[in-house]
Automatic annotation (TrEMBL):
<dbReference type="InterPro" id="IPR000551">
    <property type="entry name" value="MerR-type_HTH_dom"/>
</dbReference>
<dbReference type="InterPro" id="IPR047057">
    <property type="entry name" value="MerR_fam"/>
</dbReference>
<dbReference type="Pfam" id="PF13411">
    <property type="entry name" value="MerR_1"/>
</dbReference>
<dbReference type="GO" id="GO:0003700">
    <property type="term" value="F:DNA-binding transcription factor activity"/>
</dbReference>
<protein>
    <submittedName>
        <fullName>Multidrug transporter activation protein</fullName>
    </submittedName>
</protein>
<dbReference type="GO" id="GO:0003677">
    <property type="term" value="F:DNA binding"/>
</dbReference>
<feature type="domain" description="HTH merR-type">
    <location>
        <begin position="27"/>
        <end position="94"/>
    </location>
</feature>
<keyword id="KW-0238">DNA-binding</keyword>
<dbReference type="InterPro" id="IPR009061">
    <property type="entry name" value="DNA-bd_dom_put_sf"/>
</dbReference>
Amino acid sequence: MNNVATKMVVVPDIAGPGQEVMLDDRALAISEMSERFDVTLRTLRFYEEKGLLNPVRKGARRFYGPRDVSRMRVILQAKKIGLTLAEIRRVIKLVEGNGKREDQFKELQEICLAQQEILVEQKQMLDEQIAEVGQILTAFDELIG
């Protein structure tokens, strides 16, 4: 199974024993997390504010453990396919849930299918807009000569 729904479920397992999500068991400072995922510090703070990441705080510093690393992988993949924050929250809840894997797969598949429908509609609208712009440009070409 090589679809997005399966990838979203498999991603957290990357943090399991024997995998190299982190170079060692130490937590990542916010700057290291930012560099690892090529996101801004503000982005990490935003995801924390929204409850998607939960770094440990030591004084004013934030430290991200394996769970946050796994969550960040899910967040970025979900964001890449255009899911909203609410949908990302739902995906994380499913991925980290204790339910049956098959049920998780089915629900994640439903989320992805719904998103695919939205993206197809958006693509159709874009295709129509591109065709309209093409007609306008053709009209200008005829007017300009």
